Amino acid sequence: MASASETQFSLRYSRASRLLHxxxxxxxxxxxxxxxxxxxxxxxxxLQDTLFLYHKNIGPIILLLVVLRLVARLIATPPPLPxxxxxxxxxxxxxxxxxxxxxxxxxxxxxxxRVQAGGFxxxxxxxxxxxxxxxxxxxxxxxxxxxxxxKSVLIVLIxxxxxxxxxxxLVKRDGVFSRMWPPA
Length: 184
Prior knowledge:
Elements: H1 4-10, H2 15-38, H3 45-75, H4 87-117, H5 126-129, H6 137-172
Helix pairs in contact: 2-3, 3-4, 4-6
């Protein structure tokens, strides 16, 4: 029979999954405000340039992290939810998690398309990604509009995810939050 500590450990995400999760959180939660601020009117050009450089060059790193998270998920399946979590809550969690993955991928791809179709460089990534898309203002405008919409969807999904994590970690204290915390 498994001890309580062994059972608790088996109900956690793998160390790799936890580290990838919290690194993704860090980058996403710094990229969103950078993206929101960088487009503000009257911003000093040096600050705006720095924010643009950060925002557009972090996107592909987020994409790589999402891909690694999906691989980690295939290698080490997520731990089961506690029995106290209703079927409806479990379904909502699954849907929100998969939508987070999909929206993050869509945001990065639309961002890359917007930058390249707009004729702008992706300084760090140009050796790998540069020249994939020719300059096309109509495509850049469409990608920008999609990026804006996906950003709003992402913010709502993050709010739902954080809200559920807070509910389980602070109110219910049912072990759901401790599946992903601490990071290492």
